[in-house]
Amino acid sequence: MRRIIESAGRKLLDAIVFAGGVFSLFMQTLFWIAVPPFRRKQITDQMVQIGVDSLPIATLTSFFIGVVIAFQSAYQMRRVSAEMYIPSLVSISITREIGPVITALVVAGRVGAAIAAELGSMKVTEQIDALETLAAQPVKYLVTPRFLALFTMLPVLTIYADLIGIFGGFVVSVAKLGLTPAMYVKMTFLPLVLKDIFTGLFKTLVFASIICTVSCYEGMRVEGGAEGVGRATTAAVVTSFILIIASDALFTVLFYFI
Amino acid sequence: MSAMIQSLNVIKSFNGRNVLNGLSLEIQKGETLVIIGRSGCGKSVFLKHTIGILKPDQGQILVDGINVAGLSIKALNQLRMRFGMLFQSAALFDSMTVGENVGFSLIEHTDFSERAIRDRVAESLEMVGLKGIEALKPSELSGGMKKRVALARAICMRPEILLYDEPTTGLDPIMADAINDLIVSLHDKLKITSVVVTHDMVSAYKIANRIAMMYQGKIIEQGEPDVIRNSTNPIVRQFITGSAAGPITDIQFKSLEQIEGERA
Fold it and tell me: Which of A53, B158, B195, B260 is the most exposed place for a label (fewest CB within 10 A)?
């Protein structure tokens, strides 16, 4: 019994340390973003790595998600002869919910892991200490370019994924469910209001902050060689996933009421 | 001669273990001080304190009379420009070329023209005997070359103080001796104050003006190389002769026995 309480207490302490560390890193990042010099090349390099290189996997996942949503809803809609609402269902669920979340999860898996592994290796090979001795601030030098790149590229990727997902629904509906292309396009945009897109994109900005801050934090606190790097990479992805889904639930509830 | 770096009764603990345990030491301007001691006795931790990467739990480190731990980020960065540090693992940035590594501080902190930076980088690389390898990546270099490139990076800003963390560890004896020669010649050429942390006694005798022995987080003896060589302190004797039996290992065995006794 005592052991259970002790381990629960230790977990709670770890969680508090983690929350404090991530929050403090987030504040430091915001501070250092405002401090010159601004390294355009580093930021664009990161934007390519984070944004452009994620296009193939974003295309693949969101296309299939669009296909699946269209088929799944057709399964139900057919019974009430409401196939014409399938495009609306696809577009709303993708722009409001699935597009932002799936894109964030894909990027957390791909980019978050890469960030944690890279910074973690730099930590264990003393490169982060070396940065400090060369009078460069690790947060400024390593975290802010990644943060800015994620913050700008994740919304772009999400819009792209939204469109591809809708296209996936389009392919299924036109090829298999007997909707005309014109009808599909009309029913896609008819119910869609700007608020749907903006709430989706707002969440994306939160997800971008989560992915970057958690992954950088996990990477920069690595101890103990290759094993530590592996552990940090796993922790970065798992924690990002949990926080993305939890914050998504929070915002969905919030946006429902406003 | 005046003390350039002063460590006053510094205490630092990690996970409840005192790694530095009231360490006091003075380093004079222009000298090469070698700190010897066993692996894991806190030598590297001390170096990281002098350049402000770690902060003491208690006590102070003064550089020219200024407390390093009390500096603002800006002032600390200015102080760090006067330092160069060579890491045990070289710690080259592997995403950059050798040239970018060596010129890092110049690119970041000065408004030197590209040409001036290129010249300074070439000059620094020449000093360590590696001319014309600017375009290579660190992954293409051998261990000894990496250390020399890291040394070129450390001297690129023409620092007043150089900190070496185990400069010869992991190198073959010939390369180790080449590094020793380099440390001596840089000291003579650039008139640098050097602090070298090592457990390599050959290296220590060769480069030191003064040697300090660190044991259990404290300096237990210091003096000119001959003083250390002829020391009567049994702990120092065991270390410099490199023998497995002696007071250092006795204590270790004793504490091992204690741990096992507690377990039983």
Answer: B260
Residues 134-193 of A with CB under 8 A from B: 134-137
Put simply, the answer to whether B53 touches A135 (Cβ < 8 Å) is no
Q: Do B104 and A136 touch (CB under 8 A)?
A: yes
Residue A189: alpha-carbon gap to chain centroid: 25
Enter the tokens of residue B117: 């930076």
Contact (CB<8Å) A133/B83 = yes
- In the predicted model, is pLDDT for residue A155 greater than 90? yes
Under 8 Å between Cβ of B82 and B159: yes
Please name the member of B73, B91, B109 whose beta carbon is closest to the beta carbon of A130: B91
Smallest CA–CA separation between B112 and chain A, in Å?
15
Report the relative pairing of strands B32-36 and B83-86 from DSSP bridges.
unpaired
CA of residue A60 relative to chain centroid, distance:
16
Which residue in this structure is represented by tokens 């999400």? A158
Q: Which residues of B touch A (CB under 8 A)?
A: 48, 51-53, 73, 77-78, 80-81, 83-85, 87-89, 91-94, 104-105, 108-109, 153
Phi-psi category of residue B55: left, alpha or beta, with phi > 0 → left and psi -120 to 50 → alpha: beta
Question: Residue ranges per domain, chain A?
Answer: 2-257
Is B78 in Cβ contact with A133 (below 8 Å)? no
Burial of B39 (0-12, 13-18, 19+ CB in 10 A): exposed
Average pLDDT, chain A: 89
CA atoms within 13 A on the CB side of A71: 11
Handedness of CA A66, A69, A72, A78 (dihedral sign): negative
Helix (H, G, I), strand (E, B) or coil at A134: coil
pLDDT digits (tens, 9 = 90+) for A196-250: 888 888 999 999 999 999 999 999 999 888 889 999 999 999 999 999 999 999 9
State how far the Cα of B18 lies from the Cα of B216, in Å rounded to an integer: 8
Which residue blocks in A40-180 are alpha helix, DSSP H?
40-50, 55-77, 86-93, 99-107, 113-124, 127-133, 138, 144-176
A130 contacts in chain B (CB < 8 Å): 85, 87, 91-93
Best mutation site among A134, A137, A220, A229 for testing chain B: the one with the most B CBs within 10 Å? A134
pLDDT, tens digit, 9 for 90 and up, residues B92-101: 998 888 888 9
Distance (Å, whole) CA A34 – CA B60: 32
Nearest CA in chain A to B157: A134
Q: Give the sign of the dihedral formed by CA B241, CA B244, CA B246, CA B248.
A: positive
- Chain-chain contact of B94 with A135 (C-beta, under 8 angstroms): no
∠ CA B10-B13-B17, nearest 5°, is 130
Picking from A137, A157, A153, A154, the residue whose alpha carbon sits closest to that of residue A29 is A137
Phi, psi at B27, each rounded to 5°: -120, 125
